[in-house]
Amino acid sequence: MSWTVAPEPFDSPVAAALWRAYYTEVSDRWYLLHEGRRTGPDELEREIAAQTWNELAPPRGQLLLGWYDGEPGGCVGVRLLSAGTAELKRVFVREELRGKGGGALLVRAAEEAARALGATRMILDTRGDLVEARALYARLGYAETGAHNDDPYADHWFRKDLG
């Protein structure tokens, strides 16, 4: 059993299924922490419909899917914000596949995609309750920095020079 990573159109059915899984998990975590409940079905559908992945389309972005033993196991996106700066987006590995190296593989593949887009640095934001993500970024050489956006759900911002 092993991982492979490949580009995927942001609007494919496989990408949509992973987006749903990603958003369900991060939304449920937030609501459980702050309101003691899971995301309601109507809330989930409204938020999924409100977000698009079109920012992850070439020529200024890329969506990559991680495949584990031929099955979709995770995703990561990268988008070019400005000359030299790319943003890491939507890093996700299905829960049953965590601990098998997929997260690091996806982030490294996104770094390569960012370099191919002309980026020399990668930035990202995340939340305090996503402790696994913060640990992954630190392990991969991302340094915590001051805020680079005003996302109301972000409490941690990171940067890495891609060299």
TrEMBL record:
Q: Write down the InterPro entries for this protein, in alphabetical order.
A: Acyl_CoA_acyltransferase, Bact_Acetyltransf, GNAT_dom
Q: Name one GO molecular function term.
A: acyltransferase activity, transferring groups other than amino-acyl groups
Record key words, sorted: Acyltransferase, Transferase
Q: Which Pfam families match?
A: Acetyltransf_1
All residue ranges annotated as the N-acetyltransferase domain in the record: 17-163
Keyword Cell membrane in annotation: no
Superkingdom as given in the UniProt entry: Bacteria
PANTHER family named in the record: AMINOALKYLPHOSPHONATE N-ACETYLTRANSFERASE-RELATED, AMINOALKYLPHOSPHONATE N-ACETYLTRANSFERASE-RELATED-RELATED
What is the name listed in the Swiss-Prot or TrEMBL entry for this protein?
N-acetyltransferase
